[in-house]
Amino acid sequence: MRRNDGDAAADCGGTKAAASTAGRVRVIGVISAGARRIAVVEDEETIREGICVALRRDQCEPVAFGDGHAAWEAFQIALPDLAILDIGLPRMDGLELCRRLRARSERVPIIFVTSREEEFDRVLGLEIGADDYLCKPFSMRELMARVKVLLRRAAHSGGSRQPSEEAFSIGDLLVDPVRLTVSWKGAPIGLTVTEFLLVQALARRPGAVLSRDQLMDSAYPDRTTVSDRTIDSHVKRIRRKFLSVDPAFSRIDAVYGAGYRYGGADT
Ligand code: CA
After folding, report:
1. CA of 138 to the centre of ligand 1 (A)
2. Which end of the chain has a smaller Cβ tally under 10 Å, C or N?
3. How far is the CA of 198 from the centre of ligand 1 (A)?
4. What's the 88 CA to ligand 1 centre distance in angstroms?
5. Which residues are CB-neighbours of 72 under 8 A, at least 6 positions away?
C-alpha cells in the first residue's frame, strides 16, 4: 500500500536505508537517529518480543522492560515517545506505572494491553489518563495502527493538516481528527482513540445508520479479535462520557437490528 504525505508523518521516523540498497545488501534493524522510542512494558516474553519485532518493522526503536519498576527507573532518566503497558506486571503494576508516568508527563501517549475485556471498564473508571486499550489477544496490526495514530497526533499538534483532517462540527459537537479530541457544547470529552474513531465515523455521516461492521472497520483495521459486543460496550462508554458533561445528551441512537446513528444535525 502506498502512503500519502500525510501518512508519512505517521511513520515512526525511521530510515529508508533498506530500500536504497536496491536489494544487494539487506539492511535489517537499522534504527535512524530520529526513530521514535517506544517503551514496551510486558512480563510475558513472547508478547513483549512480538511487539518489539513489529515496532522495529515500522522503524521504531523499542525499549523493552519485563517489570514495572525497571521501566519507572528508566522513565525517570528519559521519557519514551510512547509507552505500551501491560496491567499485570511484577514489582509495579501497569496502573501505578501509568499514574507515575502521567504525573511526569501529560503528553506521552500510553496504550494499555489488557488480558480481559472486563478490565477495560475497571481501568477506564480509574481515569488514569491512558490514551487507548487493547484486549489480549490483539493483532499486531491493530496495535501498530494505534501507535501510528498517537505518534501522529503528537507530531501534528499545531502543524499543517490534510483537508480530511480539518476539525468539523455538527451542531454542538466539535471533532478534531488531528488532536483526536471531541467536545460537546464547548466541554472536552475525554475519549480513548478507539472511542474517538467511532464517534468520528458516526459524526461524519449524521443521520446515517452505520452497521456494527462499518463501525468496526472505522475503529479496528484488523478485526479478528473484535466482537459485536465490543462495539456495544464502546458505545455505552462513549454515551456515559457525553452524559457526564450533559445529562440531556441523546444524539447517539441504537437502531434495532441495524447499528448506530448520530442523530445530531441541528437543522
Ligand atoms: Ca502480565
Report:
1. 14
2. N
3. 28
4. 4
5. 92, 97, 100, 101
